[in-house]
Design brief:
By secondary structure, the protein is α+β, with helices and mostly antiparallel strands. Helices cover 37% and strands 13% of the residues. The strands form 3 sheets. It has a 6-stranded antiparallel β-sheet, sandwiched between helices. A 3-stranded antiparallel β-sheet has the order 3-5-4. A hairpin with a 4-residue loop joins β10 and β11.
Length: 375
């Protein structure tokens, strides 16, 4: 009977069909936990479960260090926000070297005000003495980490590193004076040398033009007021504050603190080219300058890392997979603010990741999140 032919045919073919299914496909990922899903907005701009899984990996993986807080903003709206115990939205996180970018924006304000010039020697008295070769160092070269000053960052042993000596040992009471006393190791402009001390010099330059000849208290007050009135208050970064040394110099290379959300607000300022709610806090051209490659380091701009190949063995971000316009504020122990204008994306990760191997894996995990928005 015709009606029996199809079942009989299927019965005859069943062994062959089962043989073809002998190899199991990839094991599906485990279900997304309620905690992971709760940290992600209903409409985050990408697949919600995929984003929840990628964020959850930052908190649960045991090979990337300790993640304490994560914030993802897409098109200006929160896409994900999560904290590990005991951290909360009120916690102020030290930025470490993310602070350098804040200092760079502050210098941009002073250049816009006509108080400093990019291609002139900054007002550092000891450099202006007749015959001192450091008088050839320009503000642009300081911003791009190519001053030529002698420096060893993150050396071994650590107590011989220039930034450790400046911040915690013989230079701690007057950090800028210690950093500015270093001799030239290279001709100014010729070589890239990442330097926390250089950013302290930039912070000192700001104090010199805002409070010329001022006392430590006057220097601190002048810089603090500029940051609060023209940057932190307009952005709503109410948690943000900077630390200062005994000479009244902001420790602008490492010791600016802010909450997770406030670090995100600063990232959004960069994404919008220095504008906040239609108000230009720092010239758009200055942000373009900060995000343009240094002549001596294609992966570094001016106090800001770029998602570009370094042409060395240095890999700070993930140039091989991320958007070319992505820039990064990157701090000691794995602090990140990643910004991509083309993806309308700001990603903040705060935590403690120590080893170089863990950092590389962490950067890959952050790249996974950025890649979701780049599909």
């Amino acid at each position: 009977m015709p009606r029996l032919r199809l079942p009989i045919a299927l019965t005859l073919l069943l062994p062959a069909l089962l043989a073809g299914c002998g190899e199991q496909g990839p094991t599906p990922p485990p279900p997304v936990s309620a905690e992971a899903l709760a940290a992600v907005a209903e409409s985050p701009g990408v697949n919600r479960e995929e984003l929840a899984r990628a964020v959850d990996a930052l908190f649960t993986r045991d090979d990337i260090g300790e993640t304490r807080a994560v914030l993802i903003l897409h098109a200006g709206e929160p896409a994900a926000e999560r904290y590990a115990e005991p951290y909360t939205p009120e916690t102020r996180f030290v930025g470490w070297s993310m602070s350098k970018t804040v200092t760079g924006v502050m210098i941009g304000m002073l250049v816009a005000d006509g108080k400093l010039r990019l291609d002139e020697s900054p007002p550092i008295d000891t450099w202006q003495r007749p015959g001192d070769p450091r008088g050839e160092i320009t503000l642009r070269q300081l911003l791009q980490m190519r001053s030529g000053l002698r420096h060893v960052e993150a050396g071994d042993p650590p107590f011989e590193s220039s930034e450790v000596r400046m911040m915690f040992l013989d230079g701690r009471d007057d950090m800028a004076r210690w950093a500015e006393a270093e001799p030239l190791a290279h001709e100014p402009g010729r070589q890239f040398q990442y330097s926390t001390n250089t950013t302290v010099i930039l912070a000192d330059i700001a104090a010199r033009v805002l409070a010329p000849g001022g006392s430590p208290a006057q220097r601190r007050h002048a810089v603090d007021e500029l940051l609060k009135a023209r940057l932190f208050a307009p952005l709503g970064m109410n948690s943000a504050f900077a630390e200062y040394d005994a000479a009244g110099t902001m420790i602008g290379g490492s010791l600016i603190h802010a909450s997770l959300r406030d670090w995100g607000k600063f990232g959004e300022l960069l994404r919008h080219g220095g504008s906040n709610k239609g108000v230009q806090l720092v010239p758009r051209g200055w942000v373009r300058f900060m995000a343009s490659p240094s002549p001596r380091a294609p992966d570094y701009g001016a106090q800001l890392w770029l998602n570009m190949p370094s042409e060395t063995d240095r890999a700070v971000l993930f140039a091989e997979r991320g958007p070319a316009d992505l820039v990064g504020m990157v701090g000691h122990l794995g602090q990140y603010v990643l910004v991509s204008p083309s993806l309308k994306l700001t990603v903040v990760r705060l935590g403690k990741t120590q080893s170089r191997e863990e950092r590389a894996r962490l950067e890959d995990a952050l790249g996974d999140i950025v890649a979701l928005y780049g599909k």
